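[SOLVED] Need 3D model of a two-part complex

Original post:
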Amino acid sequence: MDAYLTAIAIITAIYVLLALGLNLQYGLTGLINFGHVGFFCIGAYTTAILSEHGVPLVVTFPLAAAFAMAAAWPLGLVSIRLREDYFAIVSLGFSEVVRLVATSERWLTNGVQGIAGIPKLFAGWLTGAAQSYAVLGLLVVFNILAILAMLRIVRSPFGRMIEAIRDNEEAVKALGKDPAVFKIQVLVLGAALAGLAGAVYAHYIGYISPEQFLPLITFQIWMAIIMGGVGRISGALVGSAILMLFLEGSRFLRDVMPFISEVSMASVRLGAVGLALILFTMYRPQGLMGDFTRK
Amino acid sequence: MTLSIQGLTKAYGGLRVVDDVRFEVPAGALVGVIGPNGAGKSTLFSLITGFLAADAGDVAFEGRSVGRASPMERARAGMVRTFQVPREFTHLTVRENLMAAAPSQSGERLIDTFFRPGRVKAEEAAIALEVAETIAFLRLEKVAEVPAGRLSGGQKKLVELGRALMTGARMILLDEPFAGVNPVLIEELSVRIQELNGRGIGFLIIEHDLAALNKLVSTLHVMDRGQLICSGAPDAVLRDPRVRDAYLGGAAA
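Solution:
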């Protein structure tokens, strides 16, 4: 049970890292990114492939974030000036392209079979429970650093400007400031966090394949920030926890409803998360922690 | 000439909503544009400020052609507009709305935010002083810490004017600054505009409230169906039969 809880905490912490990035993009800037999983995928594959070739993890982790940023930048350059709903579609397409490349470029990614035997974090130093705790500890450190960076951003003139962009982009232009410049930076920063999350994920699970990077992951992160509270850093934390509660909690549905078969369980769990989202939008649309609207 | 509008034209399909409009706004002048609904006044504003691309014609500001420049470049050149329906930053306070408008802040660069916090802080303090002055000038002290989305229509117009002032603009284009504003505030706003004009800021104002505009401006341009039909001193323009026909006649009937 202890190992199970640690595992859930690790996955939750990975979701928090992803949610912090999306919260910066959507919650603070109003950027509708439907392709978050693409950067997560790039981070995971970057570190998996490099470490397979013997590159040490202290190098592959920063590179995972850097590669995700390097993908976000040109994507931002070509598409960030589109109307927000069109950018949403382009970003969704981008993440699907990333997944399809991972599927078809077998020489690099081993295609649908995926990459197995990705070295575990802290292998050689720690094993068993201690290793899991160390991974969790590393994630906590990453999350704290990310939160500190977010706080610094929110309280800066940069943070004020991205919130202004969220509130009214045309007015920002009328003041002589280019919203695109800010939105690209926000896209790239969020991608860095997603890339880093992907790196931890790859080494924690030890095996990655394209089907782990379906758009569903993006929408789960969206659900997390909507349930937690859009535009709130605490919302990203709480929302990820609620998401995990529903994803994992529904696992125990079979104890009370034994008629649910093993195969239909996956759908039932998704249904549970969907129901949670519906209940939240009905009864607490601002999310558990409240949204960016000030009291 | 500060602002020179040189044959601006915009058509949607066969309909010319702005048709070869040309006039000049001298430095530090207070100029009004009137005309019935649908005359093309707001479209003209968007063409001048670059929010819409003109089909023909050019705009020159302080001797430089800006007709191909983006809205951002035109604003940075010193020509800033407000909107008919106020576009306040809803969730930012009035103070933050004005702070955001200050030009070229190093704190808007992430690198400085993280690695030169001292410099950013010093700049913020300087901007805060300027904002406090502007807020006092516009009599917005009582609502300074209120999210701008909660203000009345008139107060939002003041916030937009305040933001334009914070950019350091030398020419401000106001799109219906008196619409939906209570009469006391209109009087107040007119006085502010005159004071600012006294400091050398030029104004081009679109307005429906002829009485308020009449007192304020030195020159009036009248538009009807996309065309400039009459220009001159307010009293003379309002007596012009073409204007009565297009605008006042219609209103009286």
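Edit: The interface with chain B takes residues 149, 152-153, 156-158, 160-161, 163-164, 166-168, 170-178, 182, 185, 189, 292-294 of chain A (CB under 8 Å).
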